[in-house]
What does this fold into?
Amino acid sequence: MLRVEEALERILSEIGRLEPEAVALPEALGRVLAQSIASQEEVPPFANSAMDGYALRSEDTQAASARAPRRLRLVGTIQAGSVAERPVGPGEAMRILTGAPVPPGANAVIQQELTQTGEDWVEVQQPVAAGNNIRHPGEDIRRGTLVLQEGAVLGPSEIGVLASLGVAAVSVYRRPVVAILATGDELVEIHEGLRPGQIRNSNSYLVAAAVTLAGGIPRPLGIARDQVEELRAKLLAAEEADLIITSGGVSVGDYDLVKDIMRERGIIDFWRVNLKPGKPLAFGRLGGTPLLGLPGNPVSAAVTFELFARPVLRKMQGFTRLLRPVVQARLLDGFQEASNRRHYVRAHVEWREGGFVAATTGRQDSHILSSMLGANALLVIPEGSPPMQPGEMVQAMLLVEGLE
Amino acid sequence: MLRVEEALERILSEIGRLEPEAVALPEALGRVLAQSIASQEEVPPFANSAMDGYALRSEDTQAASARAPRRLRLVGTIQAGSVAERPVGPGEAMRILTGAPVPPGANAVIQQELTQTGEDWVEVQQPVAAGNNIRHPGEDIRRGTLVLQEGAVLGPSEIGVLASLGVAAVSVYRRPVVAILATGDELVEIHEGLRPGQIRNSNSYLVAAAVTLAGGIPRPLGIARDQVEELRAKLLAAEEADLIITSGGVSVGDYDLVKDIMRERGIIDFWRVNLKPGKPLAFGRLGGTPLLGLPGNPVSAAVTFELFARPVLRKMQGFTRLLRPVVQARLLDGFQEASNRRHYVRAHVEWREGGFVAATTGRQDSHILSSMLGANALLVIPEGSPPMQPGEMVQAMLLVEGLE
It folds into this structure.
């Protein structure tokens, strides 16, 4: 049996990044830059005031004090978005609002709270140092500075900064289209009633949702039954995607045509991976498109998606961090089951007074769906661990987005 | 000045949940259930085999041992999705695959590894207890059990479980449409060059991205300049949304018409909130639609969005947890600035060997955009804190999704 890390390494070694594409800035949210971006401008673009106050010449104020205030003549107002119509000369000042450009001639701003004013004058009671309350052009970002490197993930702040630099479109790695195929004669679509022996195709819905959260574009192709022509047609359609994810049809005991037809159209390996739930796994290519075959059991499909499919989708999109964050958490309830295989245990993890605590979400048998509900973590119980007691520390893989 | 918590409380007291709407299951991803859902079925729906093996009658095996194996006659095979064509009678067994329904007459399954088989027989070398390797109907979820309560957030697992129960559509709270308006004569659109004194409208892009991540539907309405008719028309269009977010036009020093026209069309309060960056804030209603006025500075807009707009959007969508998780983290670099106001410091937080560590992302002045890049947390520095040293513990608000 393969270790989880070995299986993942083999899979990822066969997966490349997709090609870049140019998108308008709003569409770049959550995506990975395929170009490095240097600023074409200074930020701030011009000297501007950090305060509402008065722009003046520092040298005019050097002798000012509370006892001998210096009165300056007001020669205008500069709002944000406007420019001064004339320079500030000796003995003069201009009213200036936050963000407005500092007028020529002025080299300092005094905040309004520190002044006395009349209709056409302002009085300063202290020396104002040159540069006071002035934000200098390029003080934040100099022209030519590398602002974001290839590989950066674009969140709201990155998008805001790019917008302020006038970057209206960016090159990002393409999002993978993922063909999703469920196999098994026992499956019916979710709006259908169940006849004896049947279960619903829930995996396609679960996988499509997980693909969406991982940044991919799901293309559900429905159920592939054990009918040769139907199956061939669906697999052919699937080959147009960037990745094919199947569920079911990969167990040793499976009694179906999927494996045969997969082999006919490409190269498929069937693996046993040393984990629980989810031992059987298939990986290969159909007509050049990578295929990942997850187990048919919904719990196993969810866990193996997390462990193998999500990193594949992230690698395709250019993310450098492919794996979920793993933290230590204190186990609130015990966990009585020992296992030779690595066990991924559905749990709810939250921060409580200085550390994470974890509680399992119920019975962990692979056919128990209800313990998937409300889980936001998978506890990683090492191969060969004994049962765990309440209060023990465990490793928890957090199913959260953004903690990179 | 209002405390952050007071301001948020005042705002949230004016915000209600939006009405429910029925959506197809795949569209419910990330949304909040507006109905409680009880299972209409047993899960599993029928007694099925937990293993690949042989279905048999327990009583036939009671005398079996390695020295005296019990040979049973094979009378068929049951795959997943099929049902037995006949019952299992005394002295008989059927080959059965994982998940396939247990045939009538049989009450136990023995896994294939423990048997010897011939063409039409199987030999059992031990007693097999009744119920062995059988998953019972309703063992996971009984018919009538409440599976998900109103208020539950639907992730991939919840969607998978609902699909398996045949729930093809659900009632969820509607996503808010958010009108986004930037105000300020200094603003130009992002594809335009800058003339002296101008800056680009980056806030609309930043806010639209943040709205999307918070589950809302952004409707950017562009820039509202200080021209009465244009401004009236934009605000009228904005009133059709569920929430209006403006940026700029809320400072004391602002020199524009926005405030006047807002007051003409509704009730607006202008607040000073005891935080940094982002002190000025406006809240009110235009023609019945709630309006949140963020500061014009991009850093302040980003921080106040997090603190005030995101909780509003979450409340509208029915989330019960409105706030970001706050954890303790060890500060790697120092933070030298003391402040009377509560300071939200842009930082990068990650898990390292048993705990979170935090590093600030650069200069924290409100006009420094570059320190927004790569931040995944806001450190919460209490009002009146002294400078902080490397190694001190700080509170960090994690900008992550899913850690609830």
